[in-house]
From TrEMBL:
It is an enzyme of class 2 (transferase). The lineage of its organism: Eukaryota, Viridiplantae, Chlorophyta, core chlorophytes, Chlorophyceae. Belongs to the adenylate kinase family. Pfam families: ADK, ADK_lid. Keywords: Kinase, Nucleotide-binding, Transferase. This is adenylate kinase. GO terms for molecular function: AMP kinase activity; ATP binding. One of its GO terms (cellular component) is mitochondrion. It comes from Chlamydomonas reinhardtii. The keyword Ion transport does not apply.
Amino acid sequence: MPADLTEVSTEALMAEIQRRLDCTKKPEKRIILIGPPGCGKGTQSPRIKNEHCLCHLATGDMLRAAVAAKTPLGLEAKKAMESGALVSDEIVIGLIEEATQQAECAKGFILDGFPRTVVQAKKLDEMLAKRGQAIDRVLNFVVPDSLLVERVVGRWVHPSSGRSYHVKFAPPKVAGVDDVTGEPLMQRKDDNAETLKARLGAFHDQTTPVIQHYAAKVVALKADRPQDEVAQAIASALNK
């Protein structure tokens, strides 16, 4: 059923039409974001998405949505999780393949949270190669481990948009609420020092080889710099 646009202002409709026209002129891009917890991916990904007309694919969110929607892949994932097994790489690749065929992803995607291993990276490459596509850039958010605890513990997010704030480094205009919608912010349950140490260990063990796998396409970003400087470095990397 078509959406009811009677309550949408003419200005808003025209702005959306212009945005879509502008997007048709953008080159396709397929980007992977790699970085430890608290590295700033959540802050920069909405900027990249809007600037380059890409869809943002976070595999954890995709899995939860597929399970909730009871899709065939979601049912397979639910069965694996209920049995205590890990969700297979094939299921995750299947979710990514389905998502990237949607209109929102026509100009490409930002992949966040996958691949975590070289095996996953190779399977992703194979899936894309069948469509005559490949990963264009891998943005490696480099932050010294010593800075990450403070970043993570003070982080708050707007769940529906993914906008990220920090009580010290990037506070919202009004404490506890999103700048754009005024909706409440939340803190993720795993945003604490103990969990971070375990996640950092897994990240360095598993994900560093992924960076080596994509070596020719990797751009290392000094992600401990101010947000605008990081954004400028990303723009430079993606406009080459």
